[in-house]
Design goal:
The complex is a heterodimer of chains A (about 180) and B (about 325). Helices cover about 25% and strands about 15% of the residues of chain A. Chain A has 4 helices and 6 strands. Chain B is about 50% helix and about 10% strand. Classes of the chains: A alpha/beta (about 180), B mainly alpha (about 325). Strand 5 of chain A pairs parallel with strand 2 of chain B. Chain B: Pfam families: DSRM_MRPL44, RM44_endonuclase.
Chain lengths: ~180, ~325
Amino acid sequence: MSNSHLFLPSGFIRTPLQNGLGRYIPQLQRITLKFCKSHGGSRGVRDFIESDLMEFAKTNPGTVVYLKPRRHRSPCMVAEYLNGEREYLSCHEFSRDEVHKWLSYMCTRSGIPVMRFRKYQHTDYPTIQGVWNPFTHQAPEINVAEFPHEVLSKPIDHGPTATEQLIEIFKKTQMEDPAK
Amino acid sequence: MRSGRVGTSLSGVTAVNAISKRNFKAHWVAPTLRELKRRKVIEEDRNGGQKIFHRSTFLEWNYDAEIFAFSNRLGEKFNDSSLRAALTHKSYIERETARLSDVGVESNLQFQDNEALAQKGGEIMSKFINGYLRAVFTQVPEELIRAMHDFLTSNSTLETVAKHIGLGDLMLCADFPCKTETYVKSFKAVVAALAESSGEEQARVFVQDLVVTQLYGQDVNELWNPVDPVGNLTAILKREGKAEPEFRLIRQSGSSSILAVYYVGVYSDKNFISEGAGESLEVAKEMAAREALKKLFHTEDSMRALPFGRQLKNIQSKIAQLENQPNVQLSEWI
C-alpha cells in the first residue's frame, strides 16, 4: 500500500539535458559484452553475437559495442550512459532472446538510476494564471464598501432559500389563475 | 598519465548499478566486505580521493569507433579531420611532443589543435543564440537578450552540455579530470567543425537543439531586472505618448504585522496596467512597475511557451535575419 518499505529511491520523472526537447539523443554511450568462448553459460550470448548483434549495431549507430571474451568467467554486459552512470547485468545462462531483450532494455534507459516515480508528469511551469491567493476574484468594491453591505456581506452564489422558493411557487400559482 | 584522484565523488563514476538476482552468501562474506571497504576508505582519504581512470586506459576502447558513434548519436555528419582537430587540445600536443623528445624520438606529429576552431565556434554560437532570442523575444530590450545570451554561453551551461553528449571521453587533453575550460573549448570547436562540415544551417539547428534548450525551465526575469523600474516605466509611457503612471493601493492586509501584504496597481489615464505585491508599499510599488514592464516585454509568468526543435522550422529565416540586428535598448524602448 505505502511505499515506505521499499528501499528504492523515489523522485520525479526527468531527462538529462532536456533530451527530446530539441532533438532526441540516444543515451546509451557504449555497451560491453563480456563472455567466455567455450563455457556453456555463455552460449546464449555467443549465439546472440553470431546472429543478432550486427543488426543491433546497425540500428544503434550511436552506441559503441565492445566484445570482450574472457575465459572461465560467466557472461555479463556493462552499459555506460552519457551522464556517466553504468549498469551491470549478469547474462549467465541467458538464452539468445533474453540477451536481445535485456540489451534493448538497456537502450531505453537514460542512465538515471531506477527509481519509483512519484508522478508520471513533470512541469517547470505549474501555474499559468497564477496561484490563488485570498485576493483573487475579490470585487474591487470591497475597498470602498461600508460593511455590513447589502450584496458583499452575503455569501456569493447563495441561491434562493427554501422559504423564498415556496413564495415564488405560490406567486406563480396566483398568476396562473386568471379567473380570480 | 590518464589517471587521477578525485576528492569529491563525481556523479556516476563510483556507482555501478547492478540488476541483481537473488543470491545466498556465506556468513563471512558481509563482514569481510565491510572490513575491506573500511580499509579502502582510509586509504583513499590518505591519498586524497578515489582513484579514477580515463576510459581510454581500458582494454575495450576504440577511438575511431567512439568518434563514429559520437557523430551518429547527434545525427550529424562531420569531416573526420575537422572533428579530430576539434577534440585535440594544445596541452595534449605539447605533452606528446615532450614525451617523444624525452624518449629521443623525432616528433613529426601531424596534430592540429582546436584553438582556432574554438574561437570561431564561440563566435558563431553567440550569433545563433542571439538570433534565436531576438526572433522569439521580439519585444524584449537588448539588455535582457544579453543577459539570456550570457546565461546560455556561461561556462557552467556549456560544460553540462559538453559532458552530456559524451565529450568527456573523446577529448585529447593533458588534464584529467578535465577542467571546465577544456570542455567549453571542445564544445565550441565541435560547433565550428560542424559548420565547416555540414554548413551553417546545420550548425544553427545544432546550437538551437543543444544549447538554447537549456533556457527551458529558467525564469528569464531572474536573469535580469531593470535597476529603476518605476523610472523606466514612466519614460516608456511618456515616449509612447500615454499618461504618466499612477500607483494606487488596491489591497492590503495585516499592515501592523510581520506578514503585511500590500497590492499596488499601476494605472495610466485610469486604465489598469498591472499590479504588484510586496511586504511594504515601496516594494509593492516596485513590483507593480516590474510587472508592467514584463507585460510590455511579453515576459510575464503566463507568457507563451518557448519554441524548440521542429517548432522552429518556420522561423529559421527570421532567426538568421535577426542575428545581426540587436533589439531596442531599454533607454529607447517603445
